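Action item from last meeting closed. Structure (216 res):
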């Protein structure tokens, strides 16, 4: 049975350390479930720079082979990134245990990731291997994706998307007329209005995709 874990790791031990260095306002968030391994092309939302500067900055990063701008909404840019073969112990260990990244965001030089492991044994192997390879890893939570009290949405939404949609619903963001602004919702969650908007949009898209794809 699969298991989920919340972990954090310094950017210089994962990806995009050079892009993030010296730019405190820059925010990068993983767009979707992305298998981690050779040849994987992740999609990332970048907030804090216009599209042209985002592309140039990423191109100068030693972890990036090439980058393409896919879309931009409000103050955020969606990019597709092709990694170089630069080696990272953390990433190599994830690949070795066949883990996948469900969600992730980088803040203040640290990646905060939600990871799915095939089993608790693979999670234990991953943790031990990180320790052996001197990876600066912090595990803040471990849970069963089917048993955390969220029924069918547990495997559909990330924790951040779930919390954002739940708070938005409870505070009247979806009411007519609306009872809370996007800025006020962001303040409640401790994030920017742009980040709140992105989480709502991506969370709703995941729920709709899951519902519309269901035979029922």
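Sequence:
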């Amino acid at each position: 049975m699969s298991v989920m874990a919340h972990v954090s790791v310094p950017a210089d031990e994962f990806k995009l350390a050079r892009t993030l260095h010296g730019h405190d306002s820059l925010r990068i968030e993983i767009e979707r479930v992305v298998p981690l391994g050779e040849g994987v092309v992740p999609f990332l939302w970048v907030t804090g720079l216009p599209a042209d500067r985002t592309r140039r900055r990423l191109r100068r990063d030693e972890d990036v082979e090439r980058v393409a701008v896919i879309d931009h909404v409000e103050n955020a840019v969606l990019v597709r990134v092709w990694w170089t073969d630069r080696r990272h112990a953390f990433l190599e260990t994830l690949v070795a245990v066949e883990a996948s990244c469900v969600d992730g965001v980088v803040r203040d030089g640290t990646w905060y990731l939600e990871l799915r492991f095939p089993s608790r044994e693979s999670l234990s192997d991953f943790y031990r291997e990180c320790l052996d390879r001197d990876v600066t890893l912090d595990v803040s939570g471990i849970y069963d994706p089917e048993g955390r009290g969220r029924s069918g949405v547990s495997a559909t939404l990330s924790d951040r998307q779930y919390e954002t949609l739940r708070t938005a619903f409870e505070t009247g963001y979806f009411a007519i007329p609306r009872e809370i602004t996007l800025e006020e919702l962001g303040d409640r969650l401790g994030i920017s209005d742009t980040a709140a908007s992105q989480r709502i949009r991506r969370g709703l898209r995941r729920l709709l995709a899951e519902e519309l794809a269901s035979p029922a």
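Note appended to the action item: The longest helix spans residues 193-213.
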